[in-house]
Amino acid sequence: MLPYATVMLVVLVGVSVLALDGGRYMSLQSQLQKGADALALAIRTRFDAAAARGFAAELALELGEDRLAVSVADGRVDVVRGAPHRVDAVDAVVSAAPGALAAVLWDGRPLTAAQAAGELTVRGGAEVVRRFATLFRAPRDLAPEAANA
């Protein structure tokens, strides 16, 4: 029979290994989920109301397994997790990985280049998506005081 201390040590090491593996799994799940969530947050924070003046659109973003419904109207943007209530009523449906869409929205990648590379597809109004991509400020434009520090 093994001493109690040895048994407890084996149990503690085993539980630690399981916790570490579980933590790695949860970290991976968080990273996979973070793409759509990060994109939704960036859409909200980088949105330029002045640039959106006179523009209204409903978009559905298909980001792998994740869906975002985006509505632009009256100089405001609303982003909601999930598919729009009426997919047939949206102006455009964009399917892409979050990084590919981010490159078009604020890194200056042309929509046509992303489409030609097979990184992004648009069903419906490509012109709506092109105009939508002009509604965001570059990260350096969000905090000008940081550049002066």
Structural notes for this entry:
- It is a single chain.
- This protein has 149 residues and is α+β, with helices and mostly antiparallel strands.
- The chain has a domain of 94 residues: SCP2 sterol-binding domain (Nonspecific Lipid-transfer Protein, Chain A).
- The chain is built from six helices and five strands.
- The radius of gyration is 22 Å and the shape is globular.
- The termini are far apart.
Q: CATH homologous superfamily of the domain at 44-137 - what is it?
A: SCP2 sterol-binding domain
**Series of secondary-structure elements, N-terminal to C-terminal:** HEEEEHHEHHH
Distance between the termini: 67 Å
Which percent range describes the beta-strand content? 15-25%
Spatial ordering of strands, largest sheet: 3-2-1-4-5
Which range best describes the helical content: under 10%, 10-25%, 25-40%, 40-55%, 55-70% or over 70%?
A: 40-55%
Low-confidence stretches: 17-33, 145-149
Shape-level CATH architecture of the domain at 44-137: 2-Layer Sandwich
**Helix segment count?**
6
The profile of the biggest β sheet is: 5 strands, mixed
Rg on CA atoms, Å: 22 Å
Shape: globular
What structural class do the secondary elements suggest? Answer: alpha+beta
CATH class of the domain at 44-137: Alpha Beta
CATH topology of the domain at 44-137: Nonspecific Lipid-transfer Protein, Chain A
Number of strands: 5
Average pLDDT, all residues: 79
